[in-house]
Amino acid sequence: MERTIQKKVAVSGGSWITVDVYGEPDAPGLVVVPGVMSDAHAWRHVAGALRAWPSVAVVNRRGRSPSGPLTSAYSLRTEVRDLGVVLDEVGTAQALFGWSYGGLIALLSADERPVRQVIAYEPVMRPFARHALPSLRAAHETSDRDRGVEIVNREISGFSAAHVEKLRADGRGWETLRRLSEPLHAELLALNAAPSPDAMARQADRVDLIIGQCNRGTDPYGTSFEDVRQRVPQASVHEFAGEGHLGHIRAPERLSRLLDDLAGFR
């Protein structure tokens, strides 16, 4: 489906959020919540290939253009409240889908309001990558965005130096990663400062958790996934064959088909 409109939604602290809507703007559908080092634009191929919902609304979380700043009072609670404002704006959603940090936000949101279905792809929770916080803070304080991108790829995700150099060779792509790294320290700090919930998504009728086959049981995403899964005992677990954390980049059409298949369980 094609993107039809972009909404601007006012949130707390004088900030704002843009929401890219695909399909029928007034029809309840799927709300997509990207995670760290991602924005609404990065999910356009997934959103455009979805067929099971009449509309798809992709949230461009605060801290990434053209949305507003994080603001000084930023926390994980800020993200949950922001999503609540977006849900009120777009109308009753048929389902929430969150990736990584966005998956945690979606699950916590469904702990506070009734939701028909939550789908979370490798959601993360504390403690997650706390070892990287000092180096991320130093990169943030010196505005060294190149270093920020290196840290998230090498020290957190565990990619090789050759992988980082391949990313750097793509000038436009590297510049996008540099831009997306700006709120990285604040987001990871907020993630690790939030209290660990005993349970999540208690008001969801159905919860589906997706784990990339390549990340089963491995740090950091597979182990954090298990921490989340233990707090959502009612969830069904689905493995995304041949993929890791970046399935929306590497295989957007296959991910869309998986999400469409999960919609059939409603």
Automatic annotation (TrEMBL):
Species classification: Bacteria, Bacillati, Actinomycetota, Actinomycetes, Kitasatosporales
Chain ranges of the AB hydrolase-1 domain: 30-256
Protein name: Alpha/beta hydrolase
Gene3D superfamilies for this protein: alpha/beta hydrolase
Organism: Streptomyces composti
InterPro entries: AB_hydrolase_1 (IPR000073), AB_hydrolase_fold (IPR029058)
Alphabetical keyword list: Hydrolase
GO molecular function: hydrolase activity
Coiled-coil parts of chain: none
